[in-house]
Structure formats: C-alpha cells, structure tokens
Design brief:
Elements (H helix, E strand, L loop, with lengths): L3 E10 L2 E8 L2 H13 L10 H21 L10 H20 L7 H4 L11 E4 L5 E7 L7 H11 L3 H9 L5 H8 L4 E8 L4 H9 L2 H6 L4 E8 L1
Parallel strand pairs: 2-6, 4-5, 5-6
Antiparallel strand pairs: 1-2, 3-4
Helix pairs in contact: 1-3
C-alpha cells in the first residue's frame, strides 16, 4: 500500500499531459514520500568517489532536516512545508513511473543551497532527450496551479540555466545540447481541491502563463488532491 492512486492521466494536446493524483491515506502517503526521499541508492550509480561523497553529504543533510522539520514519523496531517514536499515528490515519482521518464532525485537532495528561492523543485528527461524542469506549489485553501505556472514562467531563462549545472551528472549529452539550443519542457505540480478535473483543466487552459508555457517542447500538469 503506497497511500495514493493515479486517477487521471491523459493528453490534453500532443505535447501537454494532465495527471491527477489522489492520496488515499495521508499518514501512509507521507511515510511513503519520506521513505522515497530517504532512499539514496542512486548515489551508487556514479563511478567517481568524489561525486558519490559530494551527493551523499548533500542528501543526508537534507534528509535529516526533512525528518526533523517537515515529515515526522507520526505525521498524520499536511502542513504547508510537508504539503509542498509531498506534491514535489509525488509528481516526480509519477512522471517516472507513469511516463517512463528519467529518474532524477528531488532537487533538495542534489542542489547546493543558496540564498533566496532555490530554483526548480524536481527534474526529469523525456524520451526525446528533452530536459524537464518542475515546480511544485501547495496552498491549503485553493487550487495552486496558477502559482506553479507563474513561478515557472518567472524562472525561465534564469533558474533553468543554473539548475542544469546541478543535474549535469544525471543527463546525457544530447539532452544538454538540446537545452542549449532552447529545447526544454516544464512540469507544474500543484495541490488541488475538490474541483472537478474538467474544471481544473479549463482553468489551466485559460491561464496566461499556461499560454506562454505551451510554446515549449513539453508541459506536464500534475494535480495532487490535498
């Protein structure tokens, strides 16, 4: 039991996908998310010891922080911090499992921390070697797709360029060449309320930031029911 189901996964255009995730047991879901984040087996895929050691230090420090401040072992409700963490990791895991895209660890585990907004939350690569940059937003009282889309547009040309350095070791040369040529995609993950899927999709399609993002190679919108 993983505490969540994929209740919708469809194309709304050739290069645009909408996915909806429904956590069925918040306590189980949060535990699953923490276990997923804590699994650092991916580090062993690197050959160089200095890379393994560097990622290990970053990942373990983040995992320790999350366990003490965001998702605790007895957590049975979603807060602002755990909500954003849940949305990020559920979206990332779903893109990997449902779309068979590249599995890149959550941004918090692999990026060096800096001042201000740390950039995109999660990443992947599609089967056409296009890098995808993901932003997650949680708002307790409303659907948060507007905030996720707006943040992505704000980041384009700035945070994506700096984040490529962070994910460099996970990406093939073709994907990096594609990115340098302006070929890239985005993932908008957000907390959703009881609004129908049809109404959420309609609202997204009418959003001005969405209209900007559909110009890129791929866009994935991921709603998480919390």
């Amino acid at each position: 039991m993983n505490g969540y189901d994929i209740i919708y996964n469809n194309k709304i255009d050739d290069h645009i996908t909408f996915i909806r995730i429904n956590p069925t047991d918040i306590k189980v879901t949060l535990r699953e998310i923490f276990n997923s984040i804590s699994n650092i087996a991916w580090i062993s895929s690197f050959d160089e010891d200095y890379i393994k050691d560097g990622f290990k230090v970053r990942a373990e420090a983040t995992i320790d922080y999350i366990s003490k401040n965001i998702i605790r072992s007895n957590e049975d409700e979603v807060t602002k911090n755990s909500g954003e963490c849940l949305v990020s990791e559920l979206a990332r895991k779903t893109v990997v499992s449902e779309m068979k895209y590249l599995d890149i660890p959550l941004g918090e585990l692999i990026k060096e921390k800096d001042f201000g907004n740390h950039g995109f939350d999660f990443f992947s690569k599609n089967n056409d070697n296009i890098l995808l940059f993901g932003e997650a937003k949680y708002v307790a009282a409303q659907n948060a797709y507007g905030k996720a889309l707006k943040q992505i547009v704000k980041f384009i040309g700035k945070k994506d360029k700096s984040d490529v350095i962070a994910i460099d070791k996970f990406c093939c040369e073709d994907s990096k060449r594609n990115f340098a040529s302006g070929n890239k995609g985005f993932m908008a993950a957000f907390a959703a309320k009881s609004t129908s899927t049809k109404k959420i999709i309609k609202g997204i399609q009418e959003n001005t930031d969405f209209q900007e993002l559909i110009k890129y190679n791929e866009l994935i919108c991921i709603a998480v029911n919390i």
